[in-house]
Amino acid sequence: MRSGSYPQALQANFQTDFATGEREAANMIDMKVKIAGVELKNPVMTASGTFGSGMEFSEFVDLNRLGAVVTKGVANVPWPGNPTPRIAETCGGMMNAIGLQNPGIQVLCERDLPFLQQYDTKVVVNVCGKSTEDYCEVVERLAREPVDLLEINISCPNVKEGGIAFGQNPKAVEAITAEIKKRAKQPVIMKLSPNVTDITETARAAEAGGADALSLINTLTGMKIDVNRRTFALANKTGGVSGPAIKPIAVRMVYETARAVKLPVIGMGGISCAEDALEFILAGATAVSVGTANFRNPSVTMEIIDGIEKYMEQYQVKNIAELIGAVR
User: Fold this and answer.
1) Active-site residues: which are they?
2) Which among 24, 216, 232, 253 has the fewest CB atoms less than 10 Å away?
């Protein structure tokens, strides 16, 4: 070997490796998003009530790949839920009248949160209640727990106001948001009900109350009648409609809301593939939650993450921020 040839070869190899690294870096896709200062590795979350706390899906889904896991709604005390039957299939979706059955905050803290701490994903706890005091009790209990974000389900019936959902009255939305914000240690996402005349009114009310983010839509109220038995398909008579049938309504409401407020929006409602998720993102959603589709295809969230990445590669989109609200 001639004198000096080894250093020259080493330098050539280094230059080649460096150039390769530059090309790889240039081709990297950034799917990270931020919700109220909390960074998610990608915009795909699970919708409350459709994923448990991840235990039931952990053999089908790599929880480490999810942007966030959103728990089933939790109250200050265990709720038994509604009588059965409480689930019915509909054309393009399903109806449910579960009644937010849950084991209560104590079980969540002792069983579900320790389980989720095993995984590299963000944890969002969905909170429900029948009075402002109920919500605040849960929020205060979660202040010392390993929880990244709180999602407040204001589609619950307000027992002190005749059973009308908190989310149907803008003044009630602003008031409960403000009370929760006084006590919360984590950022607060207010989950909006679509069962209103103008969802931007409740969105602005939540923003005025101090919300850090919004998620929408919750289920639409519907009814199904069994013509053979000549009775209601659900014991509760009415239930929440979800699934692909409601997606166009949800996309429209996300689009309107994203332009009415300055808060990040989490879109949901009928998402069952990457194309659906991208519709919401292009309409203005910073992140998306996948719900009913989990029942039909337990691996759907993984497919959606992969699909969004392939879309970005196909259209040479380097950062997902380029897509958020791109359709105006």
Assistant:
1) 156
2) 24
